[in-house]
Amino acid sequence: MTVLLAVEELTKHFPVRRGLLGRTTALVRAVDSISFTIDAGATLGLVGESGCGKTTTSKLVLGLERPTSGAIRFQDEDVLTLDRPALKRYRRAVQAVFQDPYASLDPRMRVGSIIAEPLVINEPLDAGARRRRVLELLDLVSLPARAAELFPHEFSGGQRQRVAIARALALSPRLVVLDDPVSPLHVSKPPQIQNQLREQQQRQGVSDMLNAHHQAAVAHMSHTVAVMYLGQIVEWGEASAVALAPRHPYTQALFAAALPIDFDTPHEEIVLPGEVPSPLSPPSGCRFHPRCPHVMPRCATEEPRLRPEANRLVACHLY
Amino acid sequence: MPLPVIDVRDLRTHLVTRWGTVKAVDSVSFAVGEGETLGLVGESGSGKSMTCLSLVRLVPRPAARILGGQVLLDGEDLLTKSEPEMRRIRGRRIGMILQDPMSSLNPVFSIGMQMREPVALYHGLRGRALTARAAELLAAVRIPSPAQRLRAFPHQLSGGMRQRVVGAMAIAAPPRLLIADEPTTSLDLTIQAQYLQLLRELQARHRFALIFVTHNLGIVAKMCDRVAVMYAGRIVEMGPVRRIFTRPAHPYSRALLESIPRLGPRAERLTAIEGQPPDLARLPAGCAFAPRCPDVMDRCRVEAPPETPVGAGHVTRCWLAMPAPGAPS
Prior knowledge:
The complex is a heterodimer of chains A (about 325) and B (about 325). By secondary structure, chain A is an alpha/beta fold. Chain A has nine helices and twelve strands. Chain B is of the alpha/beta class and about 325 residues long. In chain B, the strands form two sheets. Chain B has an eight-stranded mixed sheet with strand order 6-7-8-3-9-10-12-11, sandwiched between helices. A four-stranded antiparallel sheet of chain B has the order 2-1-4-5. Classes of the chains: A alpha/beta (about 325), B alpha/beta (about 325).
């Protein structure tokens, strides 16, 4: 498979400014030198707790934030040095679905106009052709044609998220970045959205980058999974390998907390002590070492690098 | 058999709204014993929270009214108590932990002020003894350096720590019954695991009955002895956790269980429950789940199924579970 998106040592530090002169007093290391790739037609799942850098990573990929350093390569072109027309093409090819469908849809626009808006800007279509395309997209996300005439408030959260997906797919993107798209939804709704996303992928061959809290759902949806902790990737590999036989102690705790539910397979419970430290002053060495059940002396001093281990990459001194 | 701590019988709470009367809690019966945990699961709007609020008689008035039934706490019916009597029961004999700790804590008072209030009330302590007891309670919920934390304000604590403070207040009495309404939904995963472990330790020490409301079936599997599945204001299935998870009798429970993504290969589609949760003001005649049920029969649309035993301590409301007339059960 060909690599669609390659992220190399991507870093984003946010300065903390204090006082009247706005002097920088500290740095929030939101994303610290992460690298990953997404193949054409594949889904990468980014997993981690709040504050681990998932959302910043997706903003960097979407071009909504400029990285402090590092490179984003899309179809072998460096995204950060693109000129305006090329950047416009990139933004067209990479679309977003945000977490909160209550905030990401304009409440005063009808659903039809919401979905048509990217087409108005990017495609020289006449009104009739545009309308046909909108109906196609609604059908793609299993919403009735009359939905085009309604306003967002007339839909449930899950239906709104489908509208957001239809809008993201309007320009036939190569990559869709989904930032925790199912977390605000009803218990019975996430499966519908997940099935929908999968069907779209099969039909259109788009790649997805999916962030979520619910690691079992991400593992279920993704081809590869990258686990983030305090701005770094600690484990990255095949979804089933990472989910079923996690190697990094943090991944192990995360997927042990995911549970379920087979009563007959023995389930080891791992409760980590403490909380995620502040990204303002991450711990020395391995950032996970203060909470790690397998901590060794060298973990406090030496930062582990991602190394191949059992069909995946793991950043841990245990291996 | 020992008397259960809480015994709810045929509880009915209705909401009068502009769109009609909503049967938010419709003939709900269950009991929870000492040291036992009952999980209450269901979609939003299924009546989980309204059931809990009815137990402590804190339903939103005047829209909601508790119309009937019994809520027996150690054999005393709370529905016949006067309001002053109820005020002595809430907090003292029934503790509550709600989803968002920020809405349970007052942002303008220090943790110490808020901790001392219930402790003074329940135990009649004052001065240094009171402060010491408040610090002990914070230590009991594993808050590091509790004496300093008493001077902190809620916004200075993390979400996990705030929820621990709420937990400390809830066990201050300690109560006979603890109601935890989605207590970990706002917490991160590793913090959630810590909090669940803490709840289990507290329960082991104080032996309270625990009602755990959640829509996370993983937590139910980990935390609960028995589980009650609610749909449209009714308990549609109740039984031992292991039994419900391995042999669910109600199509709705089955659908809920099948809709959870499991750790495993990126394989088949997830089973989604078709259709929308019901509009409680316009419930269909018969079984409320009938419009979404994959196994619906003609009878389901006319007549609501009664509670039917299907195993040891396992009941369901489904016509499919009814033994055919004359057949051995």
